[in-house]
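Box 3.1 — From sequence to structure: NADPH oxidase 2
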Amino acid sequence: TWKWVVGPMFLYLCERLVRFWRSQQKVVITKVVIHPFKTIELQMMKKGFKMEVGQYIFVKCPAVSKLEWHPFTLTSAPEEDYFSIHVRIVGDWTEGLFNACGCDKQEFQEAWKLPKIAVDGPFGTASEDVFSYETVMLVGAGIGVTPFASVLKSVWYKYCHDATNLKLKKIYFYWLCRDTHAFEWFADLLQSLETQMQERNNAEFLSYNIYLTGWDESQATHFVMHHEEEKDVITGLKQKTLYGRPNWENEFKTIARQHPGSRIGVFLCGPEGLADTLNKESISNSEADPRGVHFIFNKENF
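Predicted structure (token representation):
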């Protein structure tokens, strides 16, 4: 038995030593941004830190707890000179971080007063493969929308830098949430991308649909009355907000018709139930002919 135990234990100890060494490296908080509905954005820098789109890190704040590590998805793009996370204040640890960063104070906070932060990572996810396809479907449910902030930012930087060499030609983005107010910072990102794409006369590059799943019929009816207005009254985007849940069978069939003979990457960050649905639709809408359309399903779950 000991021969089978010693090998894995040695590898585990090596992995723990590497993680301990990485967590001891100095991290500098360069900026703290307070977003609506008690969400803060921490922009940080760390020597030798390299990331890919959609990855995540573990964060420890000794001023709040000397032992607790919490995972957060990176919301910055690899092209940016910093890395960032968005933290929504929903518990004791996040509340402690909120106060430690001085977000509960009205006056300007000096940089040297910001707490020390330890970072372990980044760690990979399925979203890294998004640039391997010409057409992708990105599906974010609830807090699962955060990895796609990094993806969409990176796509925009690559598009601006060298659009001709960018393999990715079309993005279908689906955002499912109970209430957009919880992720208002993400609606701001979409609004910025929407404006910039229109200025470059390529508004068709990004096609997105926002579904509010937590609204009852009376609330939805009130906002449907404003459907003819130029911008959506909830998100401020040109694309109107939809209510309920998507008809995934229709969505897959429509995309399959528009991109015959393509390999389409389907990326989900959301609950297991939705993963099962998208996986079944990916299989049923893929053709047996190798030259036909194929949906390749990738997922990550919280």
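Summary of the box: Residues 178 and 215 are 7 Å apart (CA to CA).
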